């Protein structure tokens, strides 16, 4: 009985200490700054632990079937005084596609990644985006236009972007963190992927990006 009681006390103490530590860390983080002008200009690298890339196609005209890529990277050259001069580049690993199929699981992911009808990742190991222009539409909003390379084809696309703010953390003093949301769409047939169009799977692909970037 004594050993069980000691273990119970130990668990409770550990939980309390962990809660205090988390509260302390949270209390040290200030509200995000909303002004782009306050951001330090320079190069920023994607924080992969705080980023997501999801995309959807419409299935049989009924619902948007949503998938994600788990491995991608991006960099931003950020000009806070003249945001139009900023640039971004990104690369996605098509083999990291995740459809979260309840029955086929990884088998379905591998088919989507490697089958020549879909992403043909063994032939085209990277999906890339490189910006060509930035246009500002509001205090924290704009459009990024650039070249998307998919399946060996390069076409221009535009992303609607929102700057969510900047911040810093106690464990990385002096380093600015910036956050963005972005969304857009394109037709997959423009890149040579026309399987199951139009009635089974839509031509239109919609994507949503949430990302934080750390100052280099």
Please explain how this structure is put together.
The chain is of the alpha+beta class and 216 residues long. The chain has two domains: 1-30; 34-215, Beta Barrel (Lipocalin). It has two helices and ten strands. The protein has helices at residues 2-27, 106-114, and strands spanning 42-59, 63-69, 72-78, 87-92, 97-98, 127-136, 141-150, 153-167, 177-187, 201-215. Strands 1-3-4-6-7-8-9-10 form an eight-stranded antiparallel beta barrel. The longest helix is centred in the first third of the chain and has 26 residues, at 2-27. The chain is globular. The mean pLDDT is 91.
In short:
This protein is 16% helix and 47% strand. The protein has 216 residues and is an alpha+beta fold.
Helix and strand arrangement:
Blueprint: H1 2-27, E1 42-59, E2 63-69, E3 72-78, E4 87-92, E5 97-98, H2 106-114, E6 127-136, E7 141-150, E8 153-167, E9 177-187, E10 201-215
Antiparallel strand pairs: 1-2, 1-3, 1-10, 2-5, 3-4, 4-6, 6-7, 7-8, 8-9, 9-10
């Amino acid at each position: 009985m004594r050993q069980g009681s000691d273990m119970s006390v130990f668990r409770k103490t550990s939980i309390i200490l962990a809660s205090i530590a988390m509260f302390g860390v949270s209390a040290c983080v200030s509200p995000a700054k909303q002004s782009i002008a306050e951001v330090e200009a320079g190069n920023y690298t994607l924080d992969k632990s705080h980023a997501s890339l999801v995309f959807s196609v419409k299935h049989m005209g009924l619902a948007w079937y949503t998938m994600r890529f788990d491995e991608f990277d991006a960099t931003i050259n950020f000009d806070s005084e003249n945001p139009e001069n900023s640039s971004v580049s990104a690369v996605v690993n098509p083999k990291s596609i995740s459809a979260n199929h309840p029955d086929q699981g990884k088998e379905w992911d591998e088919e989507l990644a490697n089958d020549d009808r879909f992403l043909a990742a063994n032939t085209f190991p990277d999906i890339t985006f490189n910006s060509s222009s930035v246009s500002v539409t509001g205090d924290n909003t704009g459009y990024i236009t650039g070249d998307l390379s998919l399946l060996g084809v390069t076409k221009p696309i535009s992303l609607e972007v929102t700057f969510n703010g900047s911040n810093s953390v106690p464990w990385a003093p002096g380093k600015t963190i910036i956050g963005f949301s972005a969304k857009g769409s394109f037709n997959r047939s423009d890149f040579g992927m026309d399987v199951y169009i139009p009635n089974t799977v839509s031509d239109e692909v919609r994507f949503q990006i949430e990302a934080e970037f750390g100052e280099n």
